[in-house]
Amino acid sequence: MYIAVDDTDSQNEMCTTYIISQIARKTHYDIIGYPELVRLNPNISHKTRGNGALNINIGTGAGKKIIIGRINGNNIYAYEKLISEPEPEELMNFASGIVEDFYVKNSENTNPGIVISKIRFDSQIYERALQEDISVASIEAFLEKRAAYKKIRTGHGIIGATASLGWNKKRVTYELLDYKYPHYGIMDKSIKMEIAKIPEKYDSTFNNIDYKNDYPAIFPKFKTPVIFGVRGIKPCDLLGIYDEIKNNFEINDEGFIIYETNQGTDDHIIYDPEFLSDLGSYSVSGIISSYPYIIQGGHYFIKMKYRDYEINLAAFEPTKEFRKIVNALIPGDLVRAYGSFDNGTLKLEKIKILKLSREYIKEPPICPDCGIKTRSKGKMDYRCPRCKKRYKNPEIVEIKRNISEGFYEVPVIARRHLSMPLKLAGHFGVV
């Protein structure tokens, strides 16, 4: 039986994943498989931080047993198969009690939702939640006769909770989240950087640290119960990383949970649609149709021809050195751009330069007799400064481009949860 939860946190405190850690800690039932952390549409305005929903499957388990966490020194296990389920009403009462204890009550924008379901849902509801802003009413209609649910306040969280149960798991990564409620004490940034170097040693991990921008990405920016989170594709490596961190640094934590996630999968990306809709995320190919320009704040823009219309590509200031890539493009370059679309602008997450345009300039020709560059004396009039011989035609010279064809991505400091880092492209078979 699945318990799905969303919208228990605020911009500044709590984390809905902590609800799942408490369910895993307090349930007297078995856990089936890994709990799931499912990121949804990164573009909607009323998300808290990462727009992630959670679910966990509990009941009586059988088969292979794996470690999915450790709380207060005790391992938490999950089984591979479910053989019997508790009653939905019992689980709703259990989950509601935990949500009521921990959700952020001093924020009017925190509106928890709980869904209890025997089944997973069709992937269409997940795909919609990656691209659209779905209403609570439409989710209530969807859940009728499918699952039990509870709304706290407006109950906006039932949207994410429902969508998490439609995740199709075509691509899967993992994240180990370490906890201390309500939040960990102050940790010096230099210590955070040293800790973030540990997972960076493992090829199976991603988005750990940004050396150039001095950013330890495994640590959250806000005061939440999460001390750090390490993302990767091998749960066994995450366990080893946790032990290495604990053995080398004094961290007074409660413990950790490992989640299956859709982070780093590009699940939000739709390829080459006929139309681009606001709030959607896309990969589109086209021809650059302008030179780049900069607006106040250090935001870079350039135009691209896509199908029968022209769109803007944007690299905003937080993308740091990635802006140099946009600044190096010229009209005629063929590119594939990835990002979220809003009001005619694709906000870039990464870009692939498929073919560079060739650019030329006219220069005074070299005098063949003297080997000296001539000087322009007017239109179609070039003269050698030594022998005074005149030439009519300029020399056409190709400008050397300071960029190469290939894939470029924003730095770790600006990377979205869902965006696939280039290091995972091979793992997922993406060219």
UniProtKB/TrEMBL annotation:
Coiled coil: none annotated. It holds the Pfam family Zn_ribbon_TiaS. The keyword ATP-binding applies. It comes from the Archaea. PANTHER family: DUF1743 DOMAIN-CONTAINING PROTEIN (PTHR40705:SF2), TRNA(ILE2) 2-AGMATINYLCYTIDINE SYNTHETASE TIAS (PTHR40705). This is tRNA(Ile2) 2-agmatinylcytidine synthetase TiaS. ATP-dependent agmatine transferase that catalyzes the formation of 2-agmatinylcytidine (agm2C) at the wobble position (C34) of tRNA(Ile2), converting the codon specificity from AUG to AUA. Residues 364-403 form the TiaS C-terminal zinc ribbon domain. Its EC number is 6.3.4.22. One of its GO terms (molecular function) is ATP binding. The keyword Methyltransferase does not apply. Its main location: cytoplasm. Keywords: ATP-binding, Cytoplasm, Ligase, Nucleotide-binding, tRNA processing. GO terms for cellular component: cytoplasm. GO terms for biological process: tRNA wobble cytosine modification.
